[in-house]
Sequence to fold (359 residues):
Amino acid sequence: MKGALIKIGIWVFLGNYTLKKSLKTENILRVITLNLITLLGSAYLIAFFSIFHSIGMHPLFYAALLSIFAVSFTLVHTEKGMKYFDYVKIAVILGVMPFYGVLYANTSHGYIWTFLLPLAIIFVMELKWGLIFCLAYYAFMVAVELKTGKYGLDLFARYTCVFWAQAALIATYETFRGIIRDRLIRDKKEIEYLSNIDHLTKLYNRRYFSESVEREFEKAINHNENICFLMLDADKFKEYNDTYGHLQGDEMLISIAKVLKSILRRSGDLVFRMGGEEFGILLPNSNYDWAFSFAEKIRLEIEGMKVPLLNVAGETKITVSVGVASVSPKSGDTPETLMKLADNNLYKAKEQGRNRVVG
Fold:
């Protein structure tokens, strides 16, 4: 029973359960506030119809406002409707403001409801537009007072202070909430970056490769595309490390990574440090001949590169061996097929003397 009530509450205040991703967005407070306005506003309009009629509220305006509430609540509870949330919130606020205006101008207790406006407007419309709408409503309050003298200067001054004090408090809350939200978004991006990037070479790491190859493999199956993968290995890396030291070995890996990043031209191509001295390049929607010639271009680029020695004068040359794999995956195939083929071809390149491309 408790679980059912929770699900009902989530549906009422956050929309369709398929929209649970809204829980992760900054719009959650706006969605909740808008649903509260439409729900309570509809109930209030229905319950006090006779009172509103007696104070001169036009039936067409009454029906239009009730329709706005009903349609807005419905749209926020559908996945397609949420795409129009910005328009929905404007429609609700533009309906609420004249409704509160009627209460303010024509009833003795209208000022009480007016004090709820800054809360509703700023939460729904965000800070900048919320304050603009609050200012527009306050201009209406001033106009009513100048025309009717309903509350008198002393009382109106008090109401003004309360209205803007509430607006200031809510604006302060929204400002701090925005700062915290931006900081959380920035921290999240930084964490995602650190979890996907190899700290030495600044290339994508093996973890991100696993995610990417699964995604691109599935895309290739769905679109009947070919996918290629290059596996590169720095030749005689252990000997290089033993001769020049680990710092120089790191410098070699960094130099290779710079070449690999600079040589990529297509936005969809991805380069990774697979581990140790191994690198990988994922080439979605590409054919074997192009991938092979691209691998040869990489090999020649690295072969012609000289890496400065860190501790002594001079330079050293490096080479890489490359295994090329190309498949047109079908339903049921897995990325392991592509990776194993590239790994086998890399092994052949090393067996045949290194510093070569095998596909």
Residues 2-192 form one domain. The chain has two domains: 2-192, 206-358. The first helix runs from residue 2 to 14. Residues 232 and 322 are 4 Å apart (CA to CA).
